């Protein structure tokens, strides 16, 4: 249910969608960058927690009868490994499969923060002096674009590593329309558009879905604050949307992971 202390619905939604911003100065010459502290802190903490949890399970793994937790983690490992094997045909266990597992678990944990009750968490953060704090890092385009840029740099790195600098540049200027010097500009423009579009589509797909999900939860909370009928229908629709949102949370983490594998696979292969 929406907190009644807000003067208007727009103020309520605007407050919950506002980031905790820290303006960074450059040598005393004025602000040159704004850091979304909430997205950064939540992303780092969730990354440490999720990877630490897997590390603890892997450390305690035994060859005998596995525990329920070990069996669940092994199921995730096997699922990710099979998905990567269907796309990437090189030595996936050296980097790609572990990277895919890391991306999937990390993004899944960040997405799952959308299930926290917004108003209750806002009061908790307020007790800590944090009056603007978004708990869902992936509903911030800076987070999703940062993740996508990390994959993008890895894609360029492996493209150069596998093909060499000369081979990578040759591919940029000589594919897909041929190696004639007259089509070099067209090839370069084609590949430039491809390189720019990958991080954009990679990041905006995840951001759009998670941001929209957060807005819908807020709208349902506002409806629940309109009266008895609003509480009844808002609760029913809220429960239904939460169940459906479970699929979205998992699916978006899976899609982001699969696109990461596809991009890294493309970097290892030629046109």
Index terms:
271 residues; mainly alpha; two-stranded antiparallel ribbon; 8 helices
Describe this structure in words.
This protein is mainly alpha-helical. The protein has one domain (9-268). Helix 2 (37-59) crosses helix 4, helix 6 (141-174) runs parallel beside helix 8 (228-268) and helix 7 (184-224) runs antiparallel to helix 8. A hairpin with a 5-residue loop joins strand 1 and strand 2. Strands 1-2 form a two-stranded antiparallel sheet. The radius of gyration is 22 Å and the shape is globular. The chain has helices at residues 9-16, 37-59, 68-87, 96-112, 118-127, 141-174, 184-224, 228-268; strands spanning 21-25, 31-36.
Structural class: mainly alpha
Largest sheet: 2 strands, antiparallel
Question: Biggest sheet: strands side by side, in what order?
Answer: 1-2
Helix count equals 8
Secondary structure elements and their pairing?
Layout: H1 9-16, E1 21-25, E2 31-36, H2 37-59, H3 68-87, H4 96-112, H5 118-127, H6 141-174, H7 184-224, H8 228-268
Antiparallel strand pairs: 1-2
Helix pairs in contact: 1-7, 2-4, 3-4, 4-8, 6-7, 6-8, 7-8
Short description:
This protein is mainly alpha-helical.
């Amino acid at each position: 249910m929406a907190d009644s202390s807000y003067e208007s619905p727009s103020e309520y939604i605007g407050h919950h969608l506002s980031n905790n911003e820290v303006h960074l100065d450059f040598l005393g010459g004025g602000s040159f960058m704004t850091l979304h502290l909430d997205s950064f802190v939540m992303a780092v903490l969730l990354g440490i927690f999720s990877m630490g949890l897997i590390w603890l399970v892997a450390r305690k793994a035994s060859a005998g009868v596995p525990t329920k937790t070990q069996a669940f983690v092994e199921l995730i490992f096997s699922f990710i490994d099979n998905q990567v094997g269907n796309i990437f045909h090189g030595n996936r266990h050296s980097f790609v499969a572990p990277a895919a597992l890391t991306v999937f678990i990390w993004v899944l944990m960040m997405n799952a923060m959308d299930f926290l009750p917004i108003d209750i968490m806002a009061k908790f953060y307020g007790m800590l002096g944090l009056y603007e704090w978004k708990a869902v890092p992936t509903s911030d385009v800076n987070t999703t674009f940062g993740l996508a840029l990390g994959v993008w740099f890895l894609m360029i790195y492996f493209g150069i590593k596998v093909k060499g600098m000369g081979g990578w540049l040759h591919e940029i200027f000589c594919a897909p329309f041929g190696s004639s010097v007259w089509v070099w500009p067209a090839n370069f423009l084609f590949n430039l558009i491809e390189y720019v579009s990958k991080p954009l589509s990679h990041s905006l797909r995840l951001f759009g879905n998670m941001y929209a999900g957060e807005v819908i939860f807020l709208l349902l909370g506002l409806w629940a604050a309109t009266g008895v009928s609003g509480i009844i229908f808002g609760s029913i629709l809220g429960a239904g949307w939460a169940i459906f949102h479970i699929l979205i949370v998992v699916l978006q983490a899976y899609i982001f992971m699969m696109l990461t594998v596809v991009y890294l696979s493309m970097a290892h292969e030629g046109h």
